[in-house]
Amino acid sequence: MKAIRRFTVRTVLPDSIAPLARLAGNLRWSWHQPTRELFNDLDPQIWAQSGHDPVRALGMVSRQTLERISSDPDLVGRIRSLDEGLERYLTEPRWYQSLGEDAPRSIAYFSPEYGISAVLPQYSGGLGILAGDHLKSASDLGVPLIGVGLLYQAGYFKQSLSRDGWQQETYPVLDPNGLPLTLLREEDGTPARISLPLPNGRHLMAQIWRADVGRVPLLLLDADVRGNDDAARGITDRLYGGGGDHRLQQELLLGMGGVKALRVFERLTGAPAPEVFHTNEGHAGFLGVERIRELMDTGMHWEEALTAARASTIFTTHTPVPAGIDRFDVGEVRHFLNAGLAQSVPTNKVLSLGAEDYEGGDPNVFNMAVMGLRLAQRANGVAKLHGQVSRAMFSGLWPGFDVSEIPITSVTNGVHVPTWVDPELTRLAQEEFGVGTVHDRDWTRAYEVSDERLWDLRRRLRSNLIDDVRRRVRAAWRKRGTPDASLGWTDDVLDPDILTIGFARRVPTYKRLTLMLRDPARLKALLLHPDHPVQLVVAGKSHPADEQGKRMIQDLVQFTDDPEVRHRIVFLPNYDIAMARTLFPGCDVWLNNPIRPLEASGTSGMKSAINGGLNLSVMDGWWDEMYDGENGWAIPSANPRDGIHTRELYTADQRDDIEAAALYDLLENTVAPLFYGQEPSSDAGSAGPSEAPADALPHEWLEMVKHTLAELGPKVSANRMLRDYVNNLYRPACQSGRAAAADQYQAAKDLAAWILRVRDAWGGVAVEHVDSIGISDAPQIGDRLTVQAYVNLGSLKPTDVVVEAAYGKVSEADNLSDHQLLELSVAEDLGSGRYLYSGEMHIELAGPFGYTVRVLPNHPGLASKAELGLVANA
Ligand SMILES: *Cc1c(COP(=O)(O)O)cnc(C)c1O
């Protein structure tokens, strides 16, 4: 029989163990090992059956068990002490509380997905995991963040395989009542709701679920409510489900509904209004439109409201892959806006925000990343290289500026260490260095750990992974229709003494899941090498609509099915956080081979590094800036890049051949021999294990592991990332936002009026003539050069602009590189808007030298010179 309705009965806990409800309800348990251990000890069997889900586990225990727990003084004591610990964690001052008054009182963080724990499957990959880690580190550091997102009824799909290795998807329906969520309610107990008008007189309502991620509340909007028609109820059916119209409505709900949800939350809890709004990728961009609507409802003009909202908004772009950017049909967006979503806001103004009105743009498209950039005074990419790539990619929005001046900075991603570091490694650090050090995650003392101890730990982590792999491989084969009787071989899959390489991620084409299959015979030889074999653990989900990705998975699965190699290479279906937490610690080497520079940052290699794994990666994303020659290996890229441009010397096929060959060479000649303590050799076969002393440990390898733990650990930590966001973006944005809002938004109004005036007058601004004085026929280093520029400012005043000389080395094509800037000052008012500017340059470089002069708008309310996209070059 099939039930027609399901609901979850919440357990009533006896008084003495009542704090269990809070310990289960606050997701801090997902990274707090002692709390997880408590839930295990309450009833190990149920803990396992629940999928390590405290809320579910509490729902599963019988009354008798609860009675037993409540009369066990040891357990009751542990529960009380963990609850007190949680209370301290939630209330005591942390890093952020040591900052001054200039730090924002509250920050709203918007993301379409959150990967916090396997029990809340509201993520598809890196973007969501990053958002989850962002919230967790914010909590650890006391950053007053509020997360905003959507609650998907089905979350992301579960992956399994057909007999012939084709990806199968199932969407388990979630019951929010069985998840660690509470419904936000009005004082009278009815669920709090927000509502958005839709075309044809329809309405989209949503209720608001609250998850607690340590100190950080996360609000999730859920459209599956009575009162919505079926189509509206389906809007939050699944993550990234459906086509354009469905997705557009999800994003309208996330952005506009999200701001409304925040207002409800403020009203019901007395929480302070966010002073900074941070949008994680473009999907939530409509939040800016809603904030503009709020301001325009108070009587401000479009330009004023835009100026005020931008001041406190941050946009983080996450992809250099155009397919990763949301682009909607302009007509579709207009259709929805015309329904009255933001009545006081002129529709054409909103449409102009997402317009690709630059060279190469598509006039029929509304681009969410472009809107994100126009609605945020500050923007960033997620690694240094990605910052560079993003500046080039979006340079069309700031014509006339050098790519290096495009106002997109970067904050390199990080990972939440307590979530991703293995408890066994934490225990080791605890025993070796004491509790305080572990708490601070200070791994610089990793060098003090003995080789024996570290090697023993690494082997244990590898064994843990292998146990998990065998279980998963057996289950996967059963699902593919093979009877148990033929699965005896799965007990011997992988070997705890063999170099273990991991590769797991989503499967978009650019990540090249199957690069390792480029030369199957060579891969086979590596796996079966007599002296230094390797073994591979591979996992990853393909987007359900991506046939090419599914074919790559199938190719890989079919390779792993070969009885000759199936004990050395496995594909594990259904990559998720639960698998990842065993996988990262268990791998000795983490492999990453995207097509450079398409991986914005990537974080999985970071999770490996904090567990003592060594990275073997293409120089892309985070690795491009953090590879130091001793923490892993760089796979060379075939096509050379100078700065931001790639010269396509090779076709895609040739490139893959070259890069795969480089990967095989590295594995065979460098990585594997080092792991087995053999001399690295280019002459394969000459060095055998017999040459190394019998029980010798691979000293050099272990040095690299210690170096990785000590040096890379702190750099890849999400705490470092959060501090960077706070110091480089949140605080400046808060300052701009406060300045704009002061005196009933007088500053924003003044700035908006100034911007309009400058835009209007800019056509009349020109550098008319430039002279240089003092240069001899044979200029030398140390010479001084006076520049005189005749500038027409039209109706603008010298206080509205800055006139500067850019000077330095020039290329043959007269392009300036690494230029310096010199601000010129007014030497003479020539009348009718014309001025003579001058300044003195010091020539400090030999070789070809050049300079130019330009005029830029100048106002203390601007965050960058390029902000308005206005420049008059000589
Ligand atoms: C870390 C992680 C990702 C993201 O990996 P990238 O290297 O950033 O692509 C995806 N899924 C899971 C389960 C992860 O743990």
Automatic annotation (TrEMBL):
Residues 13-120 form the DUF3417 domain. It catalyses: [(1->4)-alpha-D-glucosyl](n) + phosphate = [(1->4)-alpha-D-glucosyl](n-1) + alpha-D-glucose 1-phosphate. The keyword Cell membrane does not apply. SUPFAM superfamilies: UDP-Glycosyltransferase/glycogen phosphorylase (SSF53756). The keyword Acyltransferase does not apply. It holds the Pfam family Phosphorylase. It comes from the Bacteria. Keywords: Allosteric enzyme. Gene3D superfamilies: Glycogen Phosphorylase B. Belongs to the glycogen phosphorylase family. This is Alpha-glucan family phosphorylase. It comes from Arthrobacter koreensis. The lineage of its organism: Bacteria, Bacillati, Actinomycetota, Actinomycetes, Micrococcales.
